[in-house]
Amino acid sequence: MNLILHVLLDAAVIFGLAYLMPQIDVKNFGTAVLIALLLGLLNFFVGWLIRFPLNLFTFFLLTGLVRIVVTALLLKLIDKFMDSFTIVGFWPALVIALAVAVAGMLIDRSAPTPEMVESGYVTYLLSYLQLA
């Protein structure tokens, strides 16, 4: 469920930034979902190969910044393979990568912890929200 939420949120961020920034062009929301899926797969399978040497070079002090730059590079790679998605320049790709990282962080922070589930707080909160 969390994976589906991340993909949809990433797609919404990409599609929203394409609406706001003239340097980014996405054909439709289905294309944005495909971009988000490809970005997740590339980050999982290829991203660590790029991130690891860069993190070694920075002594693991700039891990978050390296992750954002690698995500921007992967977005430019996706841009090269897809006709219905274009990014003009590297800076818009960096903005998308930063926005996707912030949105993912907000989703991960709002997820209930195992302690919340075990204590019954989540069940109480859900039952309260259904009654309201």
Counted by DSSP, the helix tally is 6
Widest beta sheet: strand line-up:
1-2
Structural class: mainly alpha
State the helical fraction. over 70%
- Helix-strand topology string: HEHHEHHH
How much strand content do the residues show? Answer: under 5%
| Average pLDDT figure | 88
Radius of gyration: 17 Å
- The outline comes out as globular
Question: What is the domain tally?
Answer: 1
Number of strands: 2
Low-confidence stretches: none
Q: Main sheet?
A: 2 strands, antiparallel
Q: State the end-to-end distance.
A: 24 Å
Keywords: Membrane, Transmembrane, Transmembrane helix
Organism: Spirosoma foliorum
Pfam families: Phage_holin_4_2
Transmembrane segments: 6-22, 29-50, 56-75, 87-107
Q: What does this entry look like structurally?
A:
The chain is mainly alpha-helical and 132 residues long. The chain has one domain. 79% of the residues lie in helices and 5% in strands. It is built from six helices and two strands. The protein has a two-stranded antiparallel ribbon with strand order 1-2. The longest helix is centred in the first third of the chain and has 29 residues, at 29-57. It is globular and about 50 Å long. It starts with a helix and ends with a helix.
